[in-house]
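User: tokens in, sequence out, please.
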């Protein structure tokens, strides 16, 4: 048994197409489990946060030198 997870769009006729060219001509048992994708809300910065932009009135901020970082192990 193989598992495929994907997000797909059902067309206006209510048809969902799944293409499996590697199984062309084969008879398959299909188990379909679905969940409706929730619409994401566009995230926005709060007005309080936006009003803070450019509000610093103290000494100019400077980034200090970061120094040498130790060499890290290579990720395999």
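Assistant: Sequence out:
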């Amino acid at each position: 048994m193989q598992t495929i997870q994907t997000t797909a769009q059902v067309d206006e006729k209510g048809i969902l197409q799944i293409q499996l060219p590697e199984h062309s001509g084969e008879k398959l048992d299909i188990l379909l489990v679905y969940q409706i994708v929730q619409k994401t809300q566009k995230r926005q910065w709060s007005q309080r946060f936006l009003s803070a932009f450019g509000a610093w009135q103290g000494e100019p901020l400077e980034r200090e030198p970061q120094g040498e970082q130790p060499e890290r192990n290579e990720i395999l």
